[in-house]
Specification:
single chain, alpha/beta, six-stranded parallel beta sheet, two-stranded antiparallel sheet, binds pyrazine-2-carboxylic acid, binds zinc ion
Length: 197
């Protein structure tokens, strides 16, 4: 069974959004067109409470896009984004959300971020997605969405480590690319056994 995992195609990651990824909106229609080819379509939704600890606004004097140390490890501090129930947290209006079997929310605990669709940023707290996929007999994943170097990357690497057959369709992803993070992500995904096409 082959699933399409669509990562965080939300207004705040598209042009005009709070954490806009260049060209983020260009991938929406081609992702819609791809959905019919899969046994299952799963969407993830970055879903932070107001005042989330990954927001630079919660750290005295910290600039957005700076790095800090959290109890669970290093963490980039972001502009406030994808606040629960805000317009920025909604999916891009052209995304065919109704075709999704599952919408998985992540990053909803104030004290910890969750880039990956499988584990929070401590790399051990599960989101439950692994169990969902296994109980449905899904063993093969195609990942698309935003952002290539953060949530797509972390999700792809975790999925490969869990033993799924993972492909990232790069032209249907867009990157933030902070200080070479795209190249590092591509190298890390390849090292983990993710196929980049
Ligand atoms: C993401 C930064 C913060 C992503 C989410 O979807 O890649 N990046 N939250
Ligand atoms: Zn986030």
């Amino acid at each position: 069974m082959h699933a399409l995992l669509v990562i965080d195609v939300q207004n705040d990651f598209c042009p005009g959004g709070a954490l806009a990824v260049a060209g983020g909106d260009e991938i929406v229609q081609p992702i819609n067109a791809l959905m019919a080819e899969f046994d299952a379509v799963i969407l993830t939704q970055d879903w932070h409470p107001a005042g989330h600890s990954s927001f630079a606004s919660q750290h005295d004097g910290a600039e957005p896009f700076s790095l800090t140390q959290m109890p669970y490890g290093p963490q980039v501090l972001w502009p406030d984004h994808c606040v629960q129930a805000s317009p920025g947290a909604q999916f891009h209006m052209a995304l065919e959300v109704d075709r999704a079997d599952l919408i998985l929310r992540k990053g909803f605990r104030a004290a910890i971020d969750s880039y990956s669709a499988f584990f929070e940023n401590d790399h051990e707290t599960p989101t439950g997605l692994e169990g969902y996929l296994r109980t449905r007999g899904i063993d093969t994943l195609m990942l698309v969405g935003l952002a290539t170097d953060f949530c797509v990357n972390f999700s792809a690497v975790d999925a490969a480590k869990l033993g799924f057959d993972v492909t990232v369709r790069q032209e249907l992803c867009r990157a933030i690319d902070l200080d070479g993070s795209l190249k590092a992500a591509q190298d890390g995904m390849r090292a983990a056994g993710v196929k980049l096409v």
